[in-house]
Amino acid sequence: MVYSVCVSTQMVNQIVDSARSILNKFIPDIYIYTDHMKDINSGKSPGFGLSLVAETTNGTLLSAELASNPQCQGAVALPRDPGRDGAKLLLEEIYRVGCVDSTNQSLVLLLMTFGQQDISKVLLGPLSPYMIEFLWHLKNLFQVMFKMETEPCGEEPKGGDKVFTSLISARPSSDAVIT
Protein backbone atom coordinates (compact mmCIF):
# COMPACT_ATOMS: atom_id res chain seq x y z
CA MET A 1 0.00 0.00 0.00
CA VAL A 2 1.36 3.39 -0.99
CA TYR A 3 -0.31 6.41 0.56
CA SER A 4 -0.04 10.16 0.15
CA VAL A 5 -1.63 13.17 1.79
CA CYS A 6 -1.76 16.71 0.37
CA VAL A 7 0.78 15.97 -2.38
CA SER A 8 0.55 15.26 -6.08
CA THR A 9 -0.70 11.84 -7.13
CA GLN A 10 2.40 11.65 -9.35
CA MET A 11 4.44 11.02 -6.19
CA VAL A 12 2.43 7.89 -5.42
CA ASN A 13 3.09 6.56 -8.92
CA GLN A 14 6.83 7.22 -8.56
CA ILE A 15 6.94 5.32 -5.26
CA VAL A 16 5.14 2.36 -6.82
CA ASP A 17 7.46 2.36 -9.85
CA SER A 18 10.63 2.50 -7.74
CA ALA A 19 9.44 -0.32 -5.44
CA ARG A 20 8.42 -2.46 -8.43
CA SER A 21 11.77 -1.87 -10.16
CA ILE A 22 13.47 -3.74 -7.32
CA LEU A 23 10.84 -6.34 -6.40
CA ASN A 24 10.02 -7.40 -9.98
CA LYS A 25 13.55 -8.79 -10.29
CA PHE A 26 12.53 -11.53 -7.84
CA ILE A 27 8.84 -12.16 -8.53
CA PRO A 28 6.53 -10.58 -11.11
CA ASP A 29 3.33 -11.24 -9.14
CA ILE A 30 3.32 -8.02 -7.07
CA TYR A 31 0.30 -5.99 -6.08
CA ILE A 32 0.85 -2.48 -4.75
CA TYR A 33 -2.30 -0.50 -4.03
CA THR A 34 -2.42 3.27 -3.76
CA ASP A 35 -4.39 5.63 -1.54
CA HIS A 36 -4.39 9.38 -2.09
CA MET A 37 -6.14 11.83 0.18
CA LYS A 38 -6.59 15.54 -0.51
CA ASP A 39 -8.76 18.54 0.29
CA ILE A 40 -10.23 19.23 3.73
CA ASN A 41 -10.25 15.60 4.94
CA SER A 42 -6.49 15.22 4.59
CA GLY A 43 -5.38 17.78 7.18
CA LYS A 44 -2.54 20.25 6.75
CA SER A 45 0.54 18.01 6.83
CA PRO A 46 1.75 16.81 3.44
CA GLY A 47 3.53 13.49 3.19
CA PHE A 48 3.76 10.05 1.62
CA GLY A 49 4.92 6.57 2.47
CA LEU A 50 4.47 2.88 1.88
CA SER A 51 3.80 -0.33 3.71
CA LEU A 52 4.90 -3.57 2.03
CA VAL A 53 3.82 -7.02 3.18
CA ALA A 54 5.07 -10.35 1.83
CA GLU A 55 3.52 -13.73 2.61
CA THR A 56 5.64 -16.86 2.64
CA THR A 57 4.46 -20.21 1.33
CA ASN A 58 3.63 -21.32 4.90
CA GLY A 59 1.59 -18.18 5.67
CA THR A 60 4.12 -16.10 7.60
CA LEU A 61 3.68 -12.36 6.97
CA LEU A 62 6.77 -10.16 6.72
CA SER A 63 6.53 -6.40 6.53
CA ALA A 64 8.50 -3.22 5.94
CA GLU A 65 7.28 0.35 6.21
CA LEU A 66 8.69 3.78 5.38
CA ALA A 67 7.31 7.30 5.39
CA SER A 68 8.57 10.70 4.31
CA ASN A 69 10.04 13.06 6.89
CA PRO A 70 7.66 15.59 8.43
CA GLN A 71 7.71 18.99 6.74
CA CYS A 72 10.75 21.11 7.72
CA GLN A 73 12.36 18.22 9.63
CA GLY A 74 15.37 16.38 8.28
CA ALA A 75 16.38 15.88 4.67
CA VAL A 76 13.72 16.12 2.01
CA ALA A 77 12.87 12.69 0.61
CA LEU A 78 12.26 12.28 -3.08
CA PRO A 79 9.29 10.07 -3.95
CA ARG A 80 11.47 7.33 -5.40
CA ASP A 81 13.48 7.02 -2.16
CA PRO A 82 10.80 5.46 0.07
CA GLY A 83 9.86 3.06 -2.73
CA ARG A 84 13.43 1.89 -3.28
CA ASP A 85 14.34 1.83 0.42
CA GLY A 86 11.08 0.13 1.42
CA ALA A 87 11.62 -2.62 -1.15
CA LYS A 88 15.16 -3.15 0.15
CA LEU A 89 13.86 -3.33 3.73
CA LEU A 90 11.31 -5.95 2.70
CA LEU A 91 14.02 -8.00 0.99
CA GLU A 92 16.11 -7.73 4.17
CA GLU A 93 13.16 -9.08 6.19
CA ILE A 94 12.77 -11.95 3.73
CA TYR A 95 16.49 -12.73 4.08
CA ARG A 96 16.28 -12.67 7.90
CA VAL A 97 13.05 -14.71 7.90
CA GLY A 98 12.07 -16.33 11.16
CA CYS A 99 8.56 -16.82 12.41
CA VAL A 100 8.42 -13.12 13.32
CA ASP A 101 9.77 -10.11 11.42
CA SER A 102 12.40 -7.95 13.14
CA THR A 103 9.90 -5.18 13.90
CA ASN A 104 7.80 -7.48 16.11
CA GLN A 105 10.51 -9.58 17.77
CA SER A 106 10.30 -7.59 20.99
CA LEU A 107 6.50 -7.89 21.16
CA VAL A 108 6.67 -11.69 20.89
CA LEU A 109 9.26 -11.97 23.66
CA LEU A 110 7.24 -9.62 25.87
CA LEU A 111 4.18 -11.85 25.39
CA MET A 112 6.34 -14.89 26.16
CA THR A 113 7.39 -13.18 29.41
CA PHE A 114 3.79 -12.97 30.56
CA GLY A 115 2.81 -16.40 29.27
CA GLN A 116 3.46 -19.88 30.61
CA GLN A 117 7.09 -20.85 30.88
CA ASP A 118 6.88 -24.38 29.45
CA ILE A 119 5.13 -23.56 26.20
CA SER A 120 6.84 -20.33 25.13
CA LYS A 121 9.13 -21.03 22.18
CA VAL A 122 9.74 -19.13 18.93
CA LEU A 123 12.11 -19.18 15.97
CA LEU A 124 13.49 -15.73 15.16
CA GLY A 125 15.79 -14.40 12.48
CA PRO A 126 19.03 -12.70 13.52
CA LEU A 127 18.42 -10.43 16.50
CA SER A 128 18.30 -6.71 15.81
CA PRO A 129 20.28 -4.28 18.02
CA TYR A 130 16.97 -3.05 19.43
CA MET A 131 16.03 -6.62 20.35
CA ILE A 132 19.29 -7.17 22.23
CA GLU A 133 18.68 -4.01 24.27
CA PHE A 134 15.09 -5.10 24.89
CA LEU A 135 16.31 -8.44 26.29
CA TRP A 136 18.37 -6.52 28.86
CA HIS A 137 15.27 -4.57 29.87
CA LEU A 138 13.23 -7.76 30.26
CA LYS A 139 15.95 -9.27 32.44
CA ASN A 140 16.23 -6.17 34.64
CA LEU A 141 12.50 -5.47 34.99
CA PHE A 142 10.97 -8.93 35.11
CA GLN A 143 13.93 -11.15 36.12
CA VAL A 144 13.33 -13.45 33.15
CA MET A 145 15.90 -15.10 30.96
CA PHE A 146 15.66 -16.76 27.58
CA LYS A 147 17.58 -19.72 26.23
CA MET A 148 18.81 -18.92 22.74
CA GLU A 149 20.28 -21.47 20.38
CA THR A 150 21.65 -20.46 17.02
CA GLU A 151 20.57 -22.66 14.17
CA PRO A 152 22.85 -22.17 11.15
CA CYS A 153 21.15 -21.87 7.77
CA GLY A 154 22.82 -25.11 6.61
CA GLU A 155 24.34 -26.02 3.25
CA GLU A 156 21.57 -24.47 1.17
CA PRO A 157 21.54 -20.72 1.87
CA LYS A 158 18.04 -19.66 2.93
CA GLY A 159 18.77 -16.38 4.68
CA GLY A 160 20.59 -15.57 7.89
CA ASP A 161 21.11 -17.81 10.88
CA LYS A 162 18.03 -18.45 12.98
CA VAL A 163 17.72 -18.09 16.75
CA PHE A 164 15.51 -20.63 18.54
CA THR A 165 14.30 -18.87 21.69
CA SER A 166 12.57 -20.31 24.75
CA LEU A 167 11.77 -18.89 28.18
CA ILE A 168 13.92 -20.55 30.88
CA SER A 169 13.28 -18.54 34.05
CA ALA A 170 9.86 -17.49 35.20
CA ARG A 171 8.88 -13.99 36.19
CA PRO A 172 8.56 -13.12 39.88
CA SER A 173 5.25 -13.69 41.61
CA SER A 174 2.54 -11.03 41.43
CA ASP A 175 3.39 -10.08 45.05
CA ALA A 176 6.89 -8.96 44.09
CA VAL A 177 7.63 -5.27 43.92
CA ILE A 178 9.68 -3.94 41.03
CA THR A 179 11.96 -1.09 42.09
Task: Produce a short descriptive summary.
By secondary structure, this protein is of the alpha+beta class. It has 4 helices and 7 strands, in the order βαβββααβαββ.
Describe this structure in words.
The structure is a single chain. By secondary structure, this protein is of the alpha+beta class. The chain folds into two domains: 2-96, RNA 3'-terminal phosphate cyclase, insert domain (Dihydrodipicolinate Reductase, domain 2); 104-170, no CATH class. The protein is 31% helix and 24% strand. It contains four helices and seven strands. The chain has helices spanning 9-23, 80-96, 105-114, 129-142, and strands at 2-5, 34-37, 47-55, 61-67, 121-124, 145-151, 162-169. Helix 3 runs parallel beside helix 4 (129-142).
Ends apart, CA distance between termini: 44 Å
**CATH homologous superfamily grouping of the largest domain:** RNA 3'-terminal phosphate cyclase, insert domain
Q: What do we call the CATH topology of the largest domain?
A: Dihydrodipicolinate Reductase, domain 2
Count of alpha/pi helices: 4
The secondary structure category is alpha+beta
Query: How would you name the oligomeric state of the polypeptide chains in this document?
Result: single chain
CATH architecture descriptor name of the largest domain? 2-Layer Sandwich
Cα gyration radius (Å): 20 Å
Work out the helicity level.
25-40%
Largest sheet: 4 strands, mixed
Average pLDDT rating: 82
Give the total of beta strands.
7
Shape: elongated
The CATH class of the largest domain is identified as: Alpha Beta
What is the helix/strand order?
EHEEEHHEHEE
| Domain tally | 2
The proportion of residues in beta strands is: 15-25%
- The low-pLDDT segments are 175-179
